[in-house]
UniProtKB/TrEMBL annotation:
It comes from Candidatus Woesebacteria bacterium GW2011_GWC1_38_13. InterPro entries: TraX. The chain crosses the membrane at residues 6-25, 32-52, 58-75, 87-104, 110-141, 153-170, 182-200, 212-230. Keywords: Membrane, Transmembrane, Transmembrane helix. Signal peptide: none annotated. The keyword Zinc-finger does not apply. This is TraX family protein.
Length: 231
């Protein structure tokens, strides 16, 4: 499977997920399908960091798009009564890519761990979508790029740590566990994204760079219009 088709699956499952959040919140299947999107985006960032001719320009484009996309992101959440949705996923992807750029410049394991920890903490503090988990996924996908087994195991480890072990270990009572278990359970379906990642054939496929860049803010604006005039 080429990079093009992995990106297509990523944006389509993301769109389905957002329709599930804003238009069909009672339908769990939209959210389950949507769990595939983030790991695919995270892996695509790692892929791009390896094959990009200029990763710093790549980061700049991603960060500028993150700032622009925050406007429709905020608009669509506000239209559904959410006043503070945090920062959109492109900020998380930017932090992950920034981590890769820093890590490329050093062979020191301690410094690499420190960089990943600091950027993960930043993602948590600024309330970026997927937070520390998201940043660590991107960095681990880069670190183990080319190894299907290590890539899969690292993602499963992070998934279980952030969505099962840590949440349940800090739960004070049974009601807290049941309250958080719904989305945590759904997040487990993101494991199926590994099938697409492992099917990568090292080919780029069709080049539609600007389509993928524009899709994120435009699909959010479309959902906002949908809410305004239809629902």
């Amino acid at each position: 499977m080429s990079l093009f088709w992995i990106k297509i699956i990523a944006i389509l499952t993301m769109a389905v997920d957002h329709l599930g959040v804003f238009v069909f919140p009672e339908n769990i299947y939209f959210r389950i399908i949507g769990r595939l999107s983030f790991p695919l985006f995270a892996w695509a960032i790692a892929n791009g960091s390896i094959y990009s001719k200029d990763t710093k320009k790549y980061l700049l484009r991603l960060f500028v798009l993150a700032i622009i996309s925050q406007i429709p992101y905020q608009m669509v959440f506000n239209s559904y009564g959410v006043t503070d949705p945090g920062l959109n996923i492109l900020f998380t992807l930017s932090l992950g890519l920034l981590g890769i750029i820093f890590i490329k410049d050093t062979d020191n394991t301690i410094i690499r761990i420190l960089i990943a920890s600091i950027l993960s903490f930043v993602a948590f503090v600024i309330n970026a979508n997927y937070g520390a988990f998201g940043v660590l996924c991107i960095i681990s996908f880069y670190r183990f790029f080319g190894s299907r087994i290590k890539t899969s195991l690292s993602y499963i480890f992070l998934l279980l740590t952030f969505f099962l072990i840590l949440p349940f270990s800090v739960s004070k009572n049974v009601s807290d566990i049941f309250e958080m278990s719904y989305m945590n359970f759904i997040q487990m379906f993101s494991i199926f994204s590994l099938f697409f990642i492992c099917a990568y054939n090292n080919k780029i496929g069709h080049k539609m760079k600007y389509f993928f860049y524009l899709f994120y803010p435009l699909h959010l604006f479309f959902i906002f219009i949908l809410k305004l005039f239809v629902f």
